[in-house]
Design goal:
The chain is α+β, with helices and mostly antiparallel strands. The chain is 36% helix and 17% strand.
Amino acid sequence: MKRTVLLLLVLSLILSASFASASEQDALLAQGSSGDQVVRLQLRLFDLGFYTYKPTGSFQVVTRTAVIAFQQRAGIMSDGSVGSESLSLLYSNSAPRAAFASVIPISYTAQSSSLPYKGSGMDWYEVRAELEPNLAYQVTNAESGETAGLFFLNGAYHAEMQPVSNADRLILNGWLGSTNSYYKCAVTLNLNGREIAASIQWNGENICMYFTNSRSHVAGLTDVEHSALVALATR
């Protein structure tokens, strides 16, 4: 009897371990995930032609859209989250590639090296201490002087923002295009009456805004392009 109980206990532990292992294998990468696994996912989607942005390590709308496009191409459930089935196919030799686009949209208004609208340099953590969530701020294109309104959402390494209105969205489209791109734009942010030098990147939905000593989503590394633009927009 004791042997039977012991065997049942061992079997129960084995089954529990199996279920835990299966649960780990089925663990999802989904919108809101972040870290090295998301960087690897974005790099693989980029290699297959579904993701056309720099790897950020942050799983947001653009990454989800790329995952859905991959899943649809592969003929599997297209919910935009990545579980064991998607991961297995994604990294296999038979992973489908995106259809070749006959037109590659590139829309960018290049900025000159001499910018007439400049601001003061300010450390990101000092800026962060003054920014208030859901408050609207005015941003100015450092070359053209055109302005747009942005809401501050949050941000650990740099400011995450969104356009206040559709009119502001159209203005941003004019600066950086309406689709995701690698392009960046030097700006100033009006912070409590002071113009602060910054640099922005736009994916059609959200703005990443960098200041002096801001860092990227990718392992907290410095983005040298943003840093150069911030310096260019500093008085």
